[in-house]
Specification:
The chain has 613 residues and is mainly alpha-helical. It has two domains: 4-402 and 412-420, Up-down Bundle (Sodium/glucose cotransporter); 531-612. It contains 28 helices and no strands. Helix 1 (4-24) packs parallel to helix 9 (156-174), helix 9 packs antiparallel against helix 19 (377-401) and helix 13 packs across helix 21 (423-434).
């Protein structure tokens, strides 16, 4: 199946990624260079790195598998991320960059004290460990069939070690700049491989092309179309109620308070450059459902016509589909394998580098300075590199010893489930920090540490205490997306009470020593809007609500509603852009200088897809 030209293309790609990774960071001589790329990253580097970091093998392989087993509803993981990306560009990132932070825990330390920042860093390292272990597993498992096809007697364990070793090598030498530039190459490979596989799958005779695929799913006898974006609220995997509530909260955490995602935007040349990179990264995100998840739906049609759906495990769908649909002798398998390699490396190197940054800046450096020793730039880089090596060994061991390489589960969903226990309370704390709300440190620490325990217990509490009508509506078992929504609001309620309590103490002049004395004295975040802008905003929200109601009531005109939805967002953001016009500035000048209208296109396309499907 795999020919010489495939091996040649794959081998050259591997050497290119390794070479660029080692060369890109050869001049990095300070901690600022190593951890933030000297704050000189261009917009295209940020865009490529954001996309490459996010679209790991878990996405390329796992999302195709879920498209095959669940359907296009998995696109909520992509479409739902866009509003969170816009929040990063306009709310979180300007605040983080203004203070020139290396890590997001420094933001929490400034707002609430060192203890909160270190708890965040510790939890972030736990999350990176979980996600990195999963990335090594899915990468090795998806690559293994191709190597075995060559007649190589490679085991799962050996492949995990090879992937971990290679990504560790160039991250060790290069730092963030190496990670970003290799991510750009890997993004191109991911897009190329995804588009090739999507085209070859959708044009198969069993599928008949895109419009035929949509028609087949629309007219299925069982009525269970895999192109339906909104699954029932009691669906065990992706209920629409969870996708529009808990999943959005997970997106907000991932894109705004996740060290290994935000770190590349902190390294941008300027805020404008970083925002444009985020914008392009968001547009690239919108392509994923169509070259990955839709390909999984096409794979379901192919194997249904062959009568083999029952024998295909979701995480094996990618490799078996490549074997089935890709013609031999044209180098296309080499292209797809190179894209898979890029998807594997692009997430692993980012997580390894961010773990090293968190450890060095938030734990090792304060520990050394507490002893009265000044840590030089060279020593900071050395400590980061040595931690990188040790951390890589740990997660490699976990991927080999703790995960079954023959599992039949949807590993992407399982990974999201396990990671989500830690995120709701941290997200609330970040939001309160953005708005400069004061709280008692002990209550904040207690909430962050106790909510994961409550999250773990919540499925049992739901099964024992939830009324019958609730279980009929939301399922007999508590879906993890509903759990995230409930735990977030529990943490929000507790910390809101802490804010009220702290305010009363301050008003009475009885502030205790245990209060959040580290809180900055900056003014609270306030939105100053003119009366006209407020009216436009209210009309925008009202129209937004009516569009959703019309889409539900009259689905047969959903295409026209989707077009109107795009124009709704685009025109509103054009209005916001025009509001920024100075007295002597031309109409064209304000649109060249401002980027709000471009984000209107991004949000408009997202809402268009939400209404269309």
């Amino acid at each position: 199946m795999i020919t010489t030209i495939d091996i040649l293309f794959f081998g050259l790609t591997f050497l290119l990624v390794l070479g660029v990774g080692m060369i890109a960071g050869r001049k990095e001589s300070s901690s600022n260079d190593y951890f933030l790329g000297g704050r000189s990253l261009p917009w295209w580097g940020i865009a490529g790195s954001l996309f490459g970091t996010n679209i790991s093998a878990n996405h390329l392989v796992g999302m195709l598998g879920i498209g095959f087993s669940v359907g296009f509803a998995q696109s909520h993981y992509e479409f739902g991320s866009i509003p969170a990306i816009v929040l990063l560009a306009f709310v979180f990132l300007p605040i983080f960059r203004r203070k020139k932070f290396f890590t997001l825990s420094q933001f929490l330390q400034e707002k609430f004290g060192k203890e909160i920042g270190r708890i965040y860093s510790a939890i972030s390292l736990i999350l990176i460990t979980i996600q990195l272990t999963g990335a090594l597993y899915i990468g090795a498992r998806s690559f293994l069939p191709f190597l075995q096809n060559l007649g190589l007697s490679v085991t799962y364990t050996e492949l995990v070690i090879w992937i971990a070793f290679t990504s560790t090598i160039y991250t060790w030498f290069g730092g963030l700049k190496s990670v970003v530039y290799t991510d750009v190459i890997q993004t191109i490979l991911i897009l190329a491989s995804g588009i090739v596989l999507a085209y070859l799958s959708i044009t198969r005779p069993e599928v008949g092309g895109l419009w035929e695929l949509l028609a087949k799913e629309e007219n299925r006898v069982d009525g269970l179309s895999k192109m339906n974006l909104y699954l029932p609220s009691n669906h065990p995997t992706l209920p629409w109620t969870g996708a529009l509530s808990g999943l959005f909260l997970l997106h907000t955490f991932y894109w705004n308070t996740n060290q290994y995602v935000v770190q590349r935007t902190l390294g941008g040349r300027s805020l404008r450059e970083a925002r444009f990179g985020i914008l392009v990264g968001g547009l690239l995100k919108l392509t994923v459902p169509f070259f990955s998840i839709l390909t999984g739906v096409a794979a379901f049609q192919i194997w249904s016509s062959l009568g083999e759906t029952a024998t295909i495990a979701p995480d094996e769908a990618f490799s078996k589909l490549v074997v089935l649909v890709v013609p031999v002798g044209y180098g296309l398998i080499g292209v797809i394998l190179a894209g898979l390699l890029g998807a594997i490396f692009s997430s692993i190197d980012s997580m390894l580098h961010s773990a090293a940054t968190l450890f060095t800046i938030d734990f090792y450096k304060p520990f050394i300075e507490k002893k009265g020793i000044t840590l030089s730039d060279k020593k900071e880089m050395q400590s980061g590199r040595f931690f990188l090596l040790g951390f890589s060994l740990i997660v490699t061991s976990f991927a080999i010893l703790l995960i079954d390489p023959n599992s039949k589960k949807n590993f992407f969903i399982e990974l999201s489930n396990q990671s989500s226990h830690f995120t709701p309370a941290l997200l609330v704390v970040f939001l309160f920090g953005i708005f400069n709300l004061r709280m008692n440190i002990r209550i904040v620490c207690g909430t962050i540490l106790l909510t994961p325990i409550l999250s773990l217990l919540s499925p049992y509490l739901y099964s024992e205490l939830a009324p019958h009508f609730i279980k009929l509506t939301f399922g007999q078992e508590l879906n993890f997306l509903h759990r995230v929504f409930l735990i977030f609001h529990f943490a929000l309620m507790v910390l809101s009470l802490a804010v009220i309590l702290e305010k009363r103490i301050l008003q009475n002049g009885k502030e205790s020593e245990s209060s959040a004395s580290a809180m900055s004295k900056s003014k609270k975040l306030k939105l100053k809007l003119s009366r006209q802008t407020k009216l436009i905003l209210y009309l925008f929200l009202l129209t937004f609500l009516f569009l959703i109601i019309f889409r539900v009531k009259w689905p047969y005109v959903k295409h026209w509603i989707a077009i109107f939805g795009f124009l709704h967002f685009f025109l509103f953001f054009c209005y916001l852009t025009y509001q920024k016009k100075s007295t002597n500035q031309s109409f064209g000048g304000v649109f060249r200088k401002r980027d709000e209208w471009l984000y209107g296109i991004l949000l408009g396309l997202t809402f268009f897809f939400y209404l269309w499907f």
